[in-house]
């Protein structure tokens, strides 16, 4: 898909990967709808406009709150918001011993990481199918493909996105609408900085995360080349984990369990 002068909606677009993507598409003279809990700061709004965005709309909605999300969908419907590219990027990190997690925390993670992506896709897909063009981008993370101790809720939320997007890809064949599944590795964002604390029961130290700007450029390139999946390359440590898990799953489980300390 050509990405110039497109209309986009990006969840979690006020920071990290989401904001890096917003900057990339701003340079393509796109119109952006940025959805986040806290909204875009004035300086970030200025950055996007100076980068070349045709228009930037910042919406404040909490995707982890059921009432707020329903209000968000109502706004999209009442304002007749249409997009060429939907980027379901918002995410909540979760980790730790599963029995110690509170039910409301589990619900919030699933709402943001899984439910929001499915419901927003459900909202925009009929319009895309009618115009026979569009792109749905879902951020699944490597945690949706390889599972480590204490990632439980987060891994479940991302594995659901993998299954959903791969199934959707088959449904969209010959429709003109495409999907892109992001198997995102460690990226240097606020969430990445929290990893070592959240997964304290695992003998693993997060290092050398990719710059969000680099990952955003790869995503833009994947869309322009009509790719259906984007994975880490061989230079990323996550690539090795994915390959071991795919080819020798028993070895991956042995390595993963050896690093766990209850």
Describe this structure in words.
This protein is globular. The termini are far apart. The protein is built from nine helices and seven strands. Strand 5, helix 5 (152-171) and strand 6 form a beta-alpha-beta unit. The chain has a single domain (7-258), classed as 3-Layer(aba) Sandwich (Rossmann fold). It has 262 residues and is an alpha/beta fold.
Radius of gyration: 18 Å
Give the strand order, joined by hyphens, for the main sheet: 3-2-1-4-5-6-7
The coarse silhouette is globular
Mean pLDDT: 93
Q: Determine the CATH topology.
A: Rossmann fold
Query: What is the first-to-last residue Cα distance?
Result: 48 Å
Helical residue percent band: 40-55%
- The top level CATH class name: Alpha Beta
Q: What fraction of residues sit in β-strands?
A: 5-15%
Overall domain count: 1
Helical stretch tally: 9
CATH superfamily: NAD(P)-binding Rossmann-like Domain
Could you give a short description of this structure?
By secondary structure, this protein is α/β, with parallel strands linked by helices. The chain has nine helices and seven strands. Helix 2 (42-51) links the parallel strand 2 and strand 3.
């Amino acid at each position: 898909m050509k990405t110039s002068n497109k209309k986009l909606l990006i969840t979690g677009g006020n920071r990290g990967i989401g904001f890096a993507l917003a900057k990339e598409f701003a340079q393509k003279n796109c119109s952006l709808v940025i959805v986040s809990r806290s909204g875009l700061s004035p300086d970030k709004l200025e950055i996007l406009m100076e980068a070349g965005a045709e228009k930037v709309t910042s919406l404040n909605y909490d995707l982890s709150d059921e009432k707020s999300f329903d209000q968000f969908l109502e706004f999209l419907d009442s304002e007749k918001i249409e997009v060429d590219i939907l980027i379901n990027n918002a995410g909540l990190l979760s980790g730790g011993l599963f029995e110690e997690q509170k039910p409301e925390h589990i619900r919030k993670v699933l709402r943001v990481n899984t439910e929001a992506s499915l419901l927003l896709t459900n909202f925009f897909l009929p319009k895309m199918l009618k115009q026979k063009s569009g792109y749905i981008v879902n951020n699944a993370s490597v945690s949706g493909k390889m599972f480590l101790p204490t990632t439980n809720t987060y891994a479940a939320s991302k594995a659901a996105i993998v299954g959903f997007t791969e199934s959707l890809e088959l449904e969209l064949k010959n429709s003109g609408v495409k999907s892109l599944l992001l198997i995102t590795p460690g990226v240097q964002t606020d969430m990445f900085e929290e990893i070592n604390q959240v997964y304290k029961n695992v003998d693993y130290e997060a290092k050398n995360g990719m710059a969000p700007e680099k990952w955003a450029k790869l995503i833009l390139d994947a869309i322009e080349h009509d790719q259906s999946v984007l994975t880490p390359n061989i230079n990323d440590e996550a690539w090795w984990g994915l390959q071991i898990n795919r080819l020798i799953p028993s070895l991956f489980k042995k390595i993963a369990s050896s690093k766990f300390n209850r």
